[in-house]
Design a protein that fits this description.
The chain has helices at 26-38, 53-58, 75-86, 144-147, 174-183, 203-214, 309-327, 342-351; strands spanning 2-4, 15-22, 42-45, 63-64, 73-74, 92-94, 99-104, 110-114, 119-127, 133-136, 152-153, 166-170, 189-194, 219-222, 224-231, 234-242, 245-250, 253-256, 260-263, 274-275, 278-280, 293-295, 300-301. The protein is built from eight helices and 23 strands. It is an alpha/beta fold. Helix content is 24%, strand content 30%. It starts with a strand and ends with a helix. Strands 1, 2, 3, 6, 7, 8, 9 and 22 form an eight-stranded mixed β-sheet that branches. Strands 11-18-12-13-14 form a five-stranded parallel β-sheet. Strands 15-16-17 form a three-stranded antiparallel β-sheet, with no helix packed on it. A hairpin with a 2-residue loop joins β15 (224-231) and β16. The model has no long low-confidence stretch (mean pLDDT 93). The protein folds into two domains: 2-135 and 261-351, 3-Layer(bba) Sandwich (FAD/NAD(P)-binding domain); 138-258, FAD/NAD(P)-binding domain (3-Layer(bba) Sandwich). The chain binds flavin-adenine dinucleotide (FAD).
Length: 352
């Protein structure tokens, strides 16, 4: 498994592989393993900066009880196990890459492009995009957009960018608390702003934050952000709405961590038949209305679809068998049970 979050070199040739897996949630990760078992090469892209989809973004520490043969494991452990399972196939994973366009060429293969310029040349596409790409929930204030990236941020790519600065972190979830705690070590001042005194973060994070506030290492202010005050295009302060009225809080940078929202986004423009934000598929092979594009996991729509991880595993397994026919139209694939697959045993044995 190779994690790659970098932009491609200019004019880099398209990356040629059998299958492009869109989404590194649990279903996309299992699909990468299954592709290797079947004899297909693949690469994964995900819009987020980390793998795991909903498991990591929404409930990393919650136990899951309905994965076959695993009595109980947290969502984070499941993702770690899935990564370990596909490790022998060394599948490249391109993070922070949202697939934007998809075009079918005259030779039947597909060209897929991401927003940061990666180009793929593939025989089939496996959409394991869940409810769509997760994107940060942004501030609705009109003055936020022109300040975005320089003074208003929705993620923290590098702590060092905030060294010696007066930073406000807004939000009450794990992300907001964890980043506020991390930033207090490099920033001149960190203030956590949340609209109420209660948090949706883990109790341990809340406890650490309160200890840091008591120790004078950071501040915590209850209030909603009513306005951003900038002069000459530079953020100077925030206006906070509180029960007693409005107050002004000096800030050089605002990091708003209000969570993520799913957005089907570009997938909706690819000419697929879509109902209720999900891609219609044929349950014999999970192929969409466009041959060569498959929908598996939560993004798949068919009668009686259950949004369960185990359903997605089954769907991916069948879809990839059909994808094989696109990648190797002249070859007949002979099914071998994994327990009798000597090549697979050797590969997995060597990687363990
Ligand atoms: C709180 C909670 C508890 C749950 N508990 C259980 C449980 O106990 N058991 C169970 O079976 N299921 C459970 N589920 C459901 C389960 O998490 C989902 O069924 C599962 O995550 C679906 O996996 P997926 O890989 O299809 O999609 P996701 O996990 O949603 O991952 C999709 C990925 O695709 C990426 N993506 C989308 N579009 C693009 C694009 N254009 N370009 C690049 N990347 C893109 C997204 O960024 C995301 O990372 C639970 C869900 C929730 C919210």
């Amino acid at each position: 498994m190779t994690l790659d979050a970098n932009a491609p070199a200019p004019h880099a040739p398209p990356i040629r592989t059998d299958v492009l897996i869109v989404g590194a949630g649990p279903v996309g990760l299992f699909a990468a393993f299954e592709a290797g078992v079947i004899g297909l090469t693949c690469q994964i892209v995900d819009a987020l900066e980390r793998v795991g989809g909903q498991c990591i973004e929404l409930y990393p520490d919650k136990p899951i009880y309905d994965i076959p043969a695993i009595t109980s494991c947290t969502a984070r452990e499941l993702v770690e196990r899935l990564l370990a399972q596909c490790k022998p196939f060394d599948v490249p994973i391109h993070l922070e890459q949202r697939v934007e366009t998809l075009e079918q060429r005259d030779d039947g293969r597909w060209t897929a492009r991401t927003q940061h310029g990666l180009v793929f040349d593939v025989a089939a596409i496996l959409l394991a995009g869940g409810n769509g790409a997760f994107v940060p929930q942004k501030l609705t204030l009109a003055e936020a957009a022109p300040l975005e990236k320089r003074y208003v941020h929705y993620s923290v790519p590098r702590l060092a960018d905030f060294a010696g600065k007066n930073v406000v972190v807004a939000g009450g979830g794990d992300s907001a608390l964890d980043w506020a705690l991390a930033l207090r070590k490099v920033a001149a001042r960190v203030t956590l702003v949340h609209r109420r005194a209660g948090f949706s973060a883990a109790d341990s994070s809340v406890e650490r934050m309160r200890r840091a506030v008591d120790a004078g290492e950071m501040d915590f202010v209850v209030g909603g952000i009513a306005a951003l005050n900038a002069k000459d295009g530079v953020l100077r302060s925030l206006t906070l709405r509180q029960i007693g009225g409005e107050v002004e809080l000096e800030a050089e940078h605002l990091i708003a961590l209000y969570g993520l929202v799913a957005d089907l986004g570009p997938i909706a423009q690819w000419g697929l038949t879509i109902h209720g934000g999900r891609v219609d598929v044929d349950t014999s092979n999970y192929e969409s209305s466009r041959p060569g594009i498959f929908g598996v996991g939560d993004i798949a729509n068919y009668p009686n679809k259950q949004k369960l991880i185990l359903s997605g595993f089954h769907e991916a397994s069948l879809a990839l068998r059909k994808a094989y026919a696109y990648a190797y139209p002249d070859k007949k694939r002979v099914h071998v049970h994994s327990s009798y697959d000597a090549k697979l045993a050797e590969k997995i044995g060597a990687a363990c």
